[in-house]
Amino acid sequence: MPNSEKPKLFGKLGWQGLLIFVGVAIIMLVFNELTNGVFLSQRNISLLLKQSAILGIVSAGMVLLIVARQIDLSAGSAVYLVSAVMAQLSVTYQWGLVPSILCAMLVGLLMGAWQGLLVAKFNIPAFIVTLAGMLIFKGIGYVWTNAATLGPVSSDLVFLSEGYVSLWISAAILAAGAALSIGLVLRDAARLKKWVKSGTNNWTKIVLIIGVTGLTGWIFLGYNGIPMAVLFMGISVSLLYFVMARTKFGRNLYVIGGNPDAARLAGIKTTKHLFQSFILMGAVYGVAGILITARLGSSAPTAGNLLELDAIAAAVIGGTSLSGGVGIIPGALIGALLLSAIDNCMSLMNVSSFLQMVVKGLILLAAVWFDVYVRKRK
Questions:
Q1: How far apart are CA 11 and CA 328, in angstroms?
Q2: Distance of CA 120 to CAs 71, 78, 79, 130, 321, Å?
Q3: For residue 13, is pLDDT > 60?
């Protein structure tokens, strides 16, 4: 019976996801105590969210691939190449902001399409394709720029990452986002009321939406407004979440990741879906590459280093299974926030960056163990 199923908070975000969220909240409180209240100040949280924006975008894209039993080891190099293109066009060739952005996005899409073609059409394992891509993309960038830093970029480009939305517009965006989310919850409830009795669950969702909106309002309206980097992260991640949770394509990715043979027998075009998922990852390269150029004010040869590993770690910490078929975009965001919070907190405490790597590794191991434990219980 449908009523016997365990309730979900948002699509595939069930009580396992809520457990992750509560765990991260506890860690944040511990960090705040260790930094004498500095960590959870409005200013620091706003800067932390801005700091985690690029990782959040890439980790959300990584969820799409891991859910479909794929992987991407080239994300950091691809983001660097997009950054190099953006800087070359805007600094060396003096292109305008809009043409440079469009060209950088096109380069990202082409990289995603190229890798998707090799994986989906020629059946080369994604591990090998993206490992080769990691070397090729970074090599092209180094040859083109002589491994030099290109900059400074224009102030208009820097604003895309370092600027802030005004307080009134920030308030309007948060209110509109909350209204849209509540509207979707009520629409789904109206559609499903004939088959599922979920009144309490719907109220839980609405209360959670209001609570998150109030919290983000307290953070952003208390310090300069919404950072532009966070705004772009919110838009990008919301679109990816919509694709995964509310489209046939997203549902099919879960089926492909859960059982590829069954997906083919069910008539799902796995080749087409895998190719399209890499195309979406290419769009992620584009957005992340533009933002990292804006954030640094230049294109540096070290841009994007190890970004793919942090993105995979964030996705896994957020509940995405490396076995495929299981994963949630909000979970990846929480994972990205946790990894950025570790860097932020330990920097406030003057802890060595090398020790930060150790802590991140231990958290990743704990997250994988938790995933294995839950899967065995099921």
A1: 9
A2: 13, 19, 22, 13, 21
A3: no
- How much is the pLDDT for 27? 79
Among 244, 234, 187, which Cα is nearest to 212's?
A: 234
Task: Residue 80: name the closest of 287, 284, 301 by CA.
Answer: 301
- DSSP per-residue string spanning 70-89: ---S-HHHHHHHHHHHHHII
Q: Token pair of 42, please? A: 């409005």
Grouping H, G, I as helix, E, B as strand and the rest as coil, residue 56 is helix
Rounded-to-integer distance, Cα 325 and Cα 108, Å:
26
Q: What pTM value is reported for the model?
A: 0.90
State the pLDDT at residue 140: 96
Asked whether the beta carbons of 303 and 54 are under 8 A apart, the reply is no
Rounded to the nearest 10 degrees, the angle between the axes of helix 15-34 and helix 329-348 is 10
Q: Are 65 and 126 in contact (CB under 8 A)?
A: yes
* pLDDT for residue 2 is more than 60: no
